[in-house]
Design a protein that fits this description.
Length: 438
């Protein structure tokens, strides 16, 4: 019950209601009762102008790639979704950062949001940042359901145009948990409908979403369309050379530089990592010396490729070492698809090109379901871009550094020698006599 004069205007900052107020006071008639509506006003503080929540600086060394143009084309349509897919360290997030800055540059009235999707907790953290930045109604209510609050705001066209980058959406269990719903978002009571985290990515005509993922399957499920997936591959020689030169403070000898880039499979993260190592070790460390050390022994190569680098344009909680970056994918496959991890282990012992399907498939023939398992395992490895295949699909290949990283991963678990022995037995059984014909 509130005490107020009959013509009073009560102003609360964050809510608007119509209430009936009973006033008690002294008068000739005793108690004067007023039972009428009282207006409570909305918060009239101005809302902030559109801005960005991208947590990284724009990269002055960014090398433009075809993938960026394709993303612009797809995301120009209303309610569009696009995805950058490819190996870890191939440059997906860097392309997404550049895209975000270009959007802001071309349209300052567009909101740009960045949401890391490695875990459900980090996804919610990204949405909380959106709520705080936009100062949407209810953003400072500690009991607010932030996921629903932000989704509703994004669906309201009066809030203007927005673009969201959902970075590192690699794990399907984050967005599409098991049927028991134990990881589903927003489940506060048994009777409440289960909502997947993917349900909080709205399809609104005033917004578009760009996803980065190592998994084609996750990216396809989140975009809903295979033709919205843009594969990011290692750089070509020209772009890789330009990147290396930008990362170095001196003019590199082109012949030495190209040899180094070939040894690094034109992989952007490996190139950036090598350039940082050369810069830090100068003048004693040069391109030719770095290349010599990479080639000298597996131990030296692992030591150099395992070195972390400081990079303000990569997620601070992620490793900046190319080997450690790929081992995240290996570990995920080992947990989710152990047979695919075993297939990758065996493949790493072959020459990295022209690995025959027949030799790999023979390892599955003892099992009744071997045929289906083999196809599923191959799909898993190609889904994460860890292997490629020939045009006819009967031979496989691996990137040089993926093969090397797989071996170091096996060595870490003391499994390398066991797989070497298995590989030798396979070769001995398949080619028992060393004749020219075989």
């Amino acid at each position: 019950m509130a005490h107020a004069p009959s013509d009073s205007l009560i102003n609360f900052s964050n809510e608007s209601v119509t209430a009936h107020v009973v006033q008690q006071g002294s008068g000739n008639a005793g108690h004067n009762i007023y039972n009428g509506p009282v207006t409570v006003l909305h918060d009239r503080r101005p809302k902030p102008p559109p801005s960005s929540t991208v947590p990284f600086w724009q990269d002055d060394d960014f090398i433009n790639r075809d993938s960026l143009d394709k993303i612009h084309q797809i995301c120009a349509k209303p309610a569009s979704r696009a995805a950058l897919v490819g190996l870890g360290g191939v440059g997906k997030s860097q392309i997404a950062i550049e895209y975000a800055y270009q959007v802001r540059g071309e349209s300052p009235t567009t909101w740009v949001f960045w949401v890391h999707a490695g875990t459900q907790a980090r996804f919610e953290e990204g949405y909380r940042r959106i709520a705080e930045t936009t100062r949407m109604d209810g953003w400072d209510n500690p009991k607010a359901d932030v996921l629903r609050l932000v989704r509703n705001w994004l669906c309201d066209e009066s809030n203007g145009r927005w673009v969201m980058v959902v970075d590192n959406a690699d794990d399907s269990a984050v967005f599409f948990p098991p049927l028991d719903g134990t990881q589903a978002a927003g489940v506060s009571s048994p009777g409440r409908a289960v909502e997947l985290l993917s349900d909080f990515l709205p399809q609104s005509p005033n917004g578009s979403i760009l996803i980065t993922s190592r998994s084609r399957d996750v990216a396809r499920r989140l975009t809903g369309r295979g033709d919205c997936l843009v594969e990011v591959k290692p750089m070509d020689k020209c772009d890789a050379l330009a990147l290396l030169q930008k990362k170095l403070s001196f003019n590199a000898n082109e012949h030495n530089a190209i040899e180094l880039l070939q040894a690094l499979d034109y992989m952007p993260l490996a190139i950036t990592q090598a350039a940082a190592c050369i810069e830090q070790g100068a003048p004693r460390m040069t391109i030719s010396r770095y290349l010599d050390e990479v080639r000298r022994s597996d131990h030296n190569r692992a030591r150099l490729l395992n070195k972390g680098i400081q990079d303000n344009r990569r997620d601070g909680r992620a490793s900046n070492s190319i080997i450690a970056t790929w081992q995240i994918s290996f570990e995920h496959i080992r947990r989710e698809m152990p047979t695919a991890a075993r297939l990758l282990s065996l493949m790493s012992l072959f020459d990295r090109q022209g690995i025959p399907e027949s030799l790999l498939r023979s390892q599955y023939q003892r099992d009744e379901d071997g045929e289906a398992d083999f196809e599923e395992d191959v799909h898993t490895l190609t889904n994460y871009s860890l292997i490629g295949m020939s045009v006819d699909g009967h031979e496989f290949e691996m990137h040089r550094l993926v093969q090397f990283s797989t071996k170091k991963w096996l060595e870490l678990y003391n499994e390398l020698e066991g797989w070497r022995e298995r590989y030798i037995r396979l070769m001995d059984d398949s080619y028992p006599v060393g004749k020219h014909e075989n």
